[in-house]
Amino acid sequence: YPTWKRTLTRRARDAQMKRFCKAQAIQRRLEEIEVTFRELEQQGIKLEKLLREEGGTAADQKTQWMNQLLYLVQKKNSLMSEESDLMIAVQELKLEEQQWQLDQKLRYYMNKEESLKTPEDCVAEKEILAELLEVVNKRNVLIHIQEEKRLSEL
């Protein structure tokens, strides 16, 4: 192997490892969010019970419970937004991996000498290129969704 091929192989391996590590970090964060959701749900249930059961409670206490309940709802909405962002990131990682695999297949066919290509090779090359374009378009849609979400939050 020439040096440039070894370099490309090493870079591809490094990029794949980065995607894997990022996917693991996302999975851990999604699990943490799930646990936090359950905790917030339990706290919300307790506050709702307190609000419904305590008929003779002072208005100040009820106001405090309502404020706590609203805070829990706000926190839950924030976590849902983060979860949505993470799910988009997961989709993006999957598409990135798929793009890398298709790119490798396409390189195989493109590096093949034109005179040695069979008609099946030409068809496969065109199909892979079409798939690659589809994946790139899907990634573009995800980026557009993220940008719209970011702008709407501003």
UniProtKB/TrEMBL annotation:
Residue ranges the record marks as coiled coil: 23-50
Keyword annotations: Coiled coil, Membrane, Monooxygenase, Oxidoreductase
Gene Ontology molecular function: any one: monooxygenase activity
Main location: membrane
BMERB domain sequence ranges: 13-154
Alphabetized PROSITE patterns for the sequence: BMERB (PS51848)
Localisation per UniProt entry: Membrane
Domain of life of the native organism: Eukaryota
Name of the protein: MICA1 monooxygenase
Organism: Galbula dea
